[in-house]
């Protein structure tokens, strides 16, 4: 059933016959599974091809709204939460600027739990069962213990984010209904999940560069986000690129993120008293201001973007030489400024990649930008339903209605 | 059938019943396939469990000798060829020291074709059908066109190795029999194939460092050697690690291979007039001398190995942070000196990898060392037979006998 559900999500509505053909199932088996999915309220069937001369086909359509996944993100300067339904449409979305280095972990998590509670309420109003909550953190996440081991830019060590959020959500709950499962993951890993596209061969092997205050990364290999042996893959922010460079949050010198993170861009593009540096500003406002200055061809802004783009390409070349990805995706804050960053990235790749024509790797700008991680979190939360739609029956029904 | 053949190769002889169980086939299907394999001469069946009280099981055993694959390697200071049978046993093996930078590509390829012709003759004598010939080159190989695009340490550009070797083998052939297929690949990619072990979870995600005059590399992800989008993955030798370092064969400065390649070790460990630098010496002799000096605790040798090991760890940490492999394998020349290199590599990983305990990545010493690439080439040559044993019928029968 999961196979059919994924096919409908990724390819849109189509006839039972075509679904069977594309998934390699017999027509009888496919029809039976479609009936089961319809009973679960996940698909609807309608007579298509009524005007045709042949026998009418039944067109199957995903009913996205009945289930949703929640993605949340803890970053140094902002929190974000999104609820996506099964079809990928937004049910609820919240963002909040914070100063993560001044707030305690408890303070940050309390704010986050508030946003998630709001999203749960909106899902309930929309009549959607929440399949799960996935929290992305800009740091090392121990996937086995579900703890945040180290988040250098937040100054966090060994924080049990999932357990903490669970407790806060339970305390804030206004009903006695059980909570959906809560898990924690690295935010760039989640961002990469949002960038996956099974229809694009250039994205089956992919490097996702997720720009925030620091730099997150994820490696996609053979169409899946590669976790590595113990789930620690993607720590590219601390690639040494500038031995004579600045001190990094990790304690070392000249890490890649010190020269491409948002902090580096703001320092290169603005003076200390520039209003853009006001910690009360949220990421969107900052990026909008930078985009405006770049459009007006402000010399300092363009020079700073050229410099960041060159450093971005210098590090990306290491990954392209190692992995020969089909695509390097500029995600996170890089996406908003991608138009000005990409030429410098491409120039560095052309110069530093040994294979001809930069190994055929193309540089793409994320369509999601800073929302990629929360979108990915929501998609990961929906995974259990896509893998086994019958699991829905075991989920707490937040809306109390029938499916 | 390929499934059964692989199971027999990787797990040794066993009863038809156990084979069926382990491969998930029904007993009837498995028995039928075993009969077909026996007809092809690839397995033998014998009554096992004769002394048991129950009905006798039939024990199935791989008959390795009837088929072999040939692997060849073109490196800067040596050529090598090996013929392995289906069970992985050596049928023939040749090595030849060369000065690849003085010889023309034609001169090198003529020597190589000579060695391959000798291996073909030995396979014929052994009564084995040669499934294919795979030539590994220390350089960038365009897998689509099967040309060597760039081999910086050999000084080669755009050489059609497969076509050239095919022509030379045909010219040297003493019989009118058709030649087995010839293909070309990157040597470190082949070395990684030899290091694969489906029974070891720590090798499903793996980084193979193949030390030669330069440094080759390959990334294993999800149990397979990851080629990247266009087959250029694994070019780790040109990772920039030492901006104030020495000029590399690729034209840039401070590439990883300039500080860890065999050339760097020889320069650090020996004086220019040291007999070990004699170009007439082959790799084994050089390594044997270095091992002897290290065993005798020669100060200069140990200091050089410590320095190389530290640089090896510095670059490896970048890959471990990015990929979190279960294993980093020291292969090629590193394997012979692994005992002295590994402690420094592990120390750098512990210091430079962000995840706790170096992300759980272990450092392993290859059991094959400098023969990993030719072994991998032979295994790759055997792949078509393992994927579809009936393909054997289409292969030229070099030995002219019956199978």
From TrEMBL, chains A, B:
A Pfam family per the record: ROK
Question: Per its UniProt record, what CDD domains does this chain match?
Answer: ASKHA_ATPase_ROK_BsXylR-like
Name the InterPro entries for this protein.
ATPase_NBD, ROK, WH-like_DNA-bd_sf, WH_DNA-bd_sf
> Residues of the signal sequence?
none
Homology family = Belongs to the ROK (NagC/XylR) family.
Protein name, per record: Uncharacterized protein
């Amino acid at each position: 059933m999961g196979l059919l559900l994924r096919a409908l999500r990724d390819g849109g509505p189509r006839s039972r016959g075509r679904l069977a053909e594309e998934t390699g199932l017999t027509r009888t088996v496919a029809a039976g599974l479609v009936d089961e999915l319809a009973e679960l309220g996940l698909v609807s069937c309608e007579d298509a091809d009524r005007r045709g001369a042949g026998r009418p086909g039944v067109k199957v359509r995903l009913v996205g709204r009945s289930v949703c996944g929640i993605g949340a993100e803890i970053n140094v300067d902002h929190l974000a939460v999104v609820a996506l339904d099964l079809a990928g449409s937004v049910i609820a979305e919240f963002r909040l600027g914070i100063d993560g280095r001044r707030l305690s972990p408890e303070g940050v998590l309390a704010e986050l739990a508030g946003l998630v509670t709001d999203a749960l309420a909106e899902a309930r109003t929309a009549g959607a069962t929440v399949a799960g909550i996935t929290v992305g953190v800009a740091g090392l996440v121990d996937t086995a213990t579900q703890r945040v081991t180290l988040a250098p830019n937040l100054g966090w060590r060994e924080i049990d984010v999932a357990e903490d959020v669970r407790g806060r959500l339970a305390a804030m709950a206004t009903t006695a209904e059980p909570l959906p499962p809560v898990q924690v993951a690295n935010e760039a890993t989640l961002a990469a999940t949002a960038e996956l596209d099974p229809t694009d061969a250039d994205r089956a092997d992919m490097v996702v560069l997720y720009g925030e205050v620091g730099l997150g990364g994820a490696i996609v290999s053979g169409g899946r986000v590669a976790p590595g042996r113990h789930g620690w893959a993607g720590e590219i922010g601390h690639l040494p690129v500038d031995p004579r460079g600045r001190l990094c949050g990790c304690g070392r010198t000249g890490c890649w993120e010190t020269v491409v993170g948002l902090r580096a861009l703001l320092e290169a593009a603005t003076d200390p008293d520039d209003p853009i540096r006001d910690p009360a500003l949220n990421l969107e406002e900052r990026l909008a201001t930078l985009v405006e200055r770049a459009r007006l061809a402000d010399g300092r802004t363009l020079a700073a973007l050229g410099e960041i783009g060159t450093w971005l390409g210098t590090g990306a070349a290491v990954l392209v030489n190692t992995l020969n990805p089909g695509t390097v995706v500029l995600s996170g804050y890089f996406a908003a400024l991608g138009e000005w960053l990409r030429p410098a990235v491409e120039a560095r790749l052309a110069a530093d990649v040994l294979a001809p024509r930069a190994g055929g790797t193309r540089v793409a700008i994320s369509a999601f930008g800073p929302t990629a991680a929360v979108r990915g979190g929501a998609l990961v939360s929906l995974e259990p339903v896509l893998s086994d739609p019958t699991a829905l029956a075991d989920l707490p029904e937040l809306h109390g209605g029938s499916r």
